[in-house]
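hey so u asked for the seq, here:
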Amino acid sequence: MKRIEIAQYIAVGATCLVVISFILAKITGANFFVSLMGLGVMGGMVSYFFGGFGTAVRMSGKIAKWGWLILPFPYDIMTGIVAFIFSIMIFIFVPIIPVRKAYKEQMME
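ran it, structure tokens below
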């Protein structure tokens, strides 16, 4: 219980750092903010180490299944793969989503 709580706090900080650094990097064009964004991604990885990685993979799998359902056969495989990769990239940059869901799942038990 304590690990997932710690992961949640780390994920909040990492998400804020990534989002604010991304916005400031786009506005100013400075490489310093890109470095800060990298630190936020590393913080997100640490939060996944404490808890929430399995939830992120399950959520990405559900998004990939949704991608398989929207197109006919030859295109659905590629759409599923792209949806899975895109959702993993989103979860790397915004780790609070799966970590918070993992926290809620653990509280329900």
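Residues 1-108 form one domain. The two ends are 11 Å apart (CA to CA).
lmk if thats what u needed
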